[in-house]
């Protein structure tokens, strides 16, 4: 499964980093527990909503017309935890 990750320092927050991931929705959705609402506030990302997006919006409306679909996600992590994961 193809995906790309990028790690960036959070401006003004030297103790935390933000990990960005892009890839196939089927992969990204499995990793996601939250999403952003219309006001960019974190909200729960329930399984039924993931299924609806994958089956209806992506499957029928986008992929069926030949569009390539890519999803993006991010997570903030303490720099210390990232360093532990890298060793």
Question: Could you describe the 3D structure shown?
Answer:
- This protein has 87 residues and is α+β, with helices and mostly antiparallel strands.
- The protein has one domain (3-86): Calcium-transporting ATPase, cytoplasmic domain N.
- 36% of the residues lie in helices and 38% in strands.
- It has helices spanning 25-31, 47-62, 79-86, and strands spanning 3-10, 13-23, 34-36, 42-44, 71-78.
- A three-stranded antiparallel β-sheet has the order 1-2-5. A two-stranded antiparallel ribbon has the order 3-4.
- Strand 1 (3-10) and strand 2 (13-23) form a beta hairpin.
- It starts with a strand and ends with a helix.
- 1% of the residues are buried.
CATH superfamily: Calcium-transporting ATPase, cytoplasmic domain N
For the secondary structure, the number of strands is 5
Which oligomeric state applies? single chain
Mean pLDDT across residues: 91
Termini distance?
Answer: 24 Å
- The coarse silhouette is elongated
Q: Level of helix content?
A: 25-40%
Task: Output the helix-strand order.
Answer: EEHEEHEH
Going by CATH, the architecture would be 3-Layer(aba) Sandwich
Work out the radius of gyration.
15 Å
CATH class: Alpha Beta
Structural class: alpha+beta
Task: Please give the order of strands in the largest beta sheet.
Answer: 1-2-5
Reported for the largest beta sheet, the result is: 3 strands, antiparallel
At the fold tier of CATH, the topology name is Calcium-transporting ATPase, cytoplasmic domain N
Note poorly predicted spans: none
Number of domains: 1
| Percent range for β-strand residues | 35-45%
Number of helices: 3
